[in-house]
From TrEMBL:
UniProt keyword list: Magnesium, Metal-binding, Molybdenum, Molybdenum cofactor biosynthesis, Transferase
Family the entry assigns: Belongs to the MoeA family.
NCBIfam families found in the cross-reference section: Glp_gephyrin, molyb_syn
Protein name per its UniProtKB record: Molybdopterin molybdenumtransferase
Residues annotated as domain MoaB/Mog: 175-312
EC number of this enzyme: 2.10.1.1
Top-level class of the enzyme under EC nomenclature: transferase
Biological function: Catalyzes the insertion of molybdate into adenylated molybdopterin with the concomitant release of AMP.
Lineage of producing organism: Bacteria, Pseudomonadati, Pseudomonadota, Alphaproteobacteria, Acetobacterales
Organism: Gluconacetobacter entanii
Pathway: Cofactor biosynthesis; molybdopterin biosynthesis
Cofactors required: Mg(2+)
Catalytic activity: adenylyl-molybdopterin + molybdate = Mo-molybdopterin + AMP + H(+)
Xref: InterPro entries: MoaB/Mog-like_dom_sf, MoaB/Mog_dom, MoeA-like, MoeA_C_domain_IV, MoeA_C_domain_IV_sf, MoeA_linker/N, MoeA_linker/N_sf
Length: 400
């Protein structure tokens, strides 16, 4: 059986980003930049005030009760058009352009005013409370690299740099096909032996959260002709994810059906728990990932393999999953030859340390335990017993 790291590397191998497209800035959140973004202006565009107060010449401030003549004001959006000379000042506000001749700001709480005379004891050096032109970024500077997933901070930065449109990678389209005669949609009448199809909706949410576009296909029943029909249903997709039917039971027909429609199989079994019957292959250039039917195993494999592959298709270099550290909150037993992913709660102790407390029950069909977990605790294959207080590696589930 392949290790988790080797299986993920084989899935990622050869994946190429989708084609770029241009989208409006308001639609770019969660997308991945397809080219570097360069500033179209200086920010700030001029020297501006960082505080409310008075624009002055630092050379005029001796700190001994200086009096300056007020010659105007410079509210935001309406710059003062004159020049501040010796013994003069201009009323100014946060974000306002510092008028010509001035090089410092006297805070309004450090000044008093009577008619057109401002008095202050504040001592200032040139540049005090002044944000210099281009201090944040200068015109032509690369502000966002290619391959960056665009979050609220990046959107704000692009907007400040005067970009109404951005080049991003197209969202990969992912066909999701659940298999099995026993599956019904949530809310449908449920006869004997039937179960609600939780996996498809769960994977749809996982794929959407990764930034891709899920496409839910009809459930493929346990008939070869239904499964072979996949070849017509998935044309134009960037990835095919099947759920269930990947092991070796009598009705587990997915492998054989995929081979018949032209899928070149790479592997179908890995040394992990939950998720041993993971399948991978290619239909032409399209990656095909077959997930186990047990819902927790499907989710864990989706987190470890599907989401990283989608990030690679979206043009990201760092595809995860991101590994963090915590302290075990309970003893755990020795591990066998399979790498294990234990569902766990997270909390902080009195010293502020992050504590991971694995659930006593780790059955791969228990969705309640998965939903109540904030992390997966990673246990290496053949790991010795670990004790409460030992360090452990985790994958956070509570951070998008």
């Amino acid at each position: 059986m392949l290790s988790v790291s080797e299986a993920r590397e084989r899935i990622l191998q050869g994946l190429r980003a989708t084609a770029p497209e241009i989208v409006s800035l308001s639609c770019a959140s969660g997308r991945v930049s397809a080219s570097p973004v360069f500033a179209r202006l200086d920010n700030p565009p001029a020297d501006i005030s960082a505080m409310d107060g008075y624009a002055v010449r630092a050379a005029d401030l001796s700190g001994e009760g200086v009096q300056l003549r007020l010659i105007g004001e410079s509210p935001a959006g309406h710059p003062f058009g004159g020049t501040v000379g010796a013994g003069e000042c201009v009323r100014i506000y946060t974000g306002s352009i510092v008028p010509a001749g001035a090089d410092a700001i006297v805070l309004q709480e450090n000044a008093s005013r009577h008619d057109d005379i401002m008095t202050t004891t504040q001592v200032a050096q040139a540049g005090l409370y002044v944000r210099r032109r281009g201090q944040d970024f200068a015109h032509g500077r690369e502000i966002i690299p290619s391959g960056r997933r665009l979050d609220a901070r990046a959107i704000g930065l692009a907007a400040a740099a005067n970009h109404p449109w951005l080049s991003v990678y197209r969202r990969p389209r992912v066909a999701i096909v659940a298999t099995g005669d026993e599956l019904v949609l949530p809310g449908e009448p449920m006869g004997p032996g039937m179960i609600a199809n939780s996996n498809t909706l769960m994977l749809e949410a996982l794929i959407r959260a990764a930034g891709a576009e899920p496409v839910m296909m009809p459930v493929a029943r346990d008939r070869m002709e239904d499964l072979i029909a996949l070849s017509r249903m998935v044309e134009g997709m960037d990835m095919l994810v099947t759920i269930g039917g990947a092991s070796v039971g009598r009705y587990d027909l997915v492998q054989e059906a995929l081979k018949r429609i032209g899928v070149e199989m790479d592997f179908w079994k890995i040394a992990m728990r939950p998720g041993k019957p993971l399948m991978h292959g290619r239909l032409g250039a399209m990656p095909v990932i077959g997930l186990p039917g047990n819902p927790v195993a499907a989710f864990v494999c989706g987190t470890l393999f599907v989401a990283p592959a989608l990030r690679r298709l979206m043009g990201q270099d760092a595809v995860g999953p991101e590994i963090g550290m915590a302290i075990l909150g309970a003893d755990v037993e020795a591990n066998d030859q399979r790498e294990s992913y234990l569902r766990a709660r997270l909390r902080h102790d009195a010293a502020g340390r992050l504590i991971a407390l694995p659930f006593p029950q780790q059955d791969s069909a228990m969705l309640q335990v998965l939903c109540d977990s904030q992390a997966l605790v990673i246990r290496d294959a053949k790991a010795a017993p670990a004790r409460k207080g030992d360090a452990c590696r985790i994958i956070r589930l509570d951070i998008p």
